[in-house]
Amino acid sequence: MDSGDFGVTRVVVALYQEKGSQFRFRGEQHGGLYEIFCLDRGRAYVRTEGRRFRASPGECFLYLPGRFHQHQATKGHAPHYITVAFTARGGRNLHALGRRRFVLPPALRTLLARVVAEDPRSGRTGAAALQRALLTEFLVEWLRLASSQEPSRHTALPPNRKGGHHGPRGLETYRELAGGEAVAKALSFVEAHLAEDVSLEDAARAAGVSPPYLRLLVRQSLSRSLREELQRMRVQQAKHLLSHTTKNVKEVAVAVGYTNLPAFSRAFRAVEGVAPSAYARTVAARGPTPLPRRAQK
User: Fold this and answer.
1) All residues at 6 or more sequence positions from 129 whose CB lies less than 8 Å from its CB, including other chains
2) Banded model confidence at residue 129, pLDDT cuts 50, 70, 90
3) What is d(CA 60, CA 247) in angstroms, rounded to the nearest whole number?
């Protein structure tokens, strides 16, 4: 790597993309932009620098400005991948990456995950500047990795060998970060709208992911569906209202989103094992000690 000034000047795109098994990107070339393609899950054919590769999870490519590139799903595999397009000063340093592919080690996968997660559209203070700094750090570390693994002239872009080692299973760090954040956003939305008719689509919109993906994330994170979690949260709120307010069972049911009292009773019993009226009597029996008579008004 040259000793001159190097750094990312602008991040144009930083996305995690999930494509189907029929996906095909016909290809493009663009001047002035560098583009990272890093496969997380599935398989994909990648064409760059006049060569075609069958990429496996964890493999990363850099498309250079003005060079044609394309990628598509392999038969029966839906590719999930990160795309980062950017401009850089001192970009000639990056040309050493443009003719090779790499399996990223865990530290670099974590760093690339942070680049994508640091979305300037989030409104967080300094998000754009931090994203540029993180991407610069990622590229410098990638260049150092490349310099320590110089290929021979016959193996500049080696094909996969059948049964060969493909390295780590992709960018799981990013999936954990993004998935956890999406679930947290969805649950916060649900909690704030317990008394409303909350749908999976509403929660997914609040979390910034598709409904099917949110369904999968919630199931993986909580081992139950979003509807089941909504029911659990409503019952927890109902328990609080029954034990800390003077509302009766019907009023509590409405307050947590049930206009049908039998439906509320069934949901409450499913979570707590007793009817809400029975729970209310139990709470009342072990309620807080009354104020001394002299303190009562």
Assistant:
1) none
2) very high
3) 59
Long-range contacts of 219-228 (CB under 8 A, 24+ apart): 220/179, 221/179, 221/180, 221/183, 222/183, 226/186, 226/190, 226/200, 227/200
Question: CA 170 to CA 38: how far, in whole Å?
Answer: 8
Model-level pTM?
0.52
Residues 127, 118 contacting (CB under 8 angstroms): yes
Two structure tokens written together for 294: 């002299």
Q: 203 near 45, Cβ under 8 Å?
A: no
Q: What is the pLDDT of residues 195-252, one digit of tens each?
A: 888 888 999 888 877 788 788 888 877 788 888 989 999 998 898 888 888 889 999 9
Who contacts 173 (Cβ-Cβ below 8 Å, separation ≥6)?
A: 106, 109, 110, 113
Answer whether 110's CB lies under 8 Å from 171's CB.
no
Burial grade of 197 (CB within 10 A; 0-12, 13-18, 19 or more):
exposed
Question: Residue 96 burial (CB < 10 Å; 0-12/13-18/19+)?
Answer: middle
Contact yes or no for 89/5 (Cβ under 8 A): yes
Give the HSE-up count for residue 202: Cα atoms under 13 Å, Cβ half-sphere: 15
Beta-carbon contacts of 238 under 8 Å, excluding residues fewer than 6 positions away, are: 252, 253, 255, 256, 264, 268, 276
Q: How many of the other CB atoms lie within 10 Å of CB of 206?
A: 19
Beta bridge partners of 72: 24, 45
**61 token code pair:** 């490519």
Assess whether pLDDT exceeds 70 at residue 295.
no
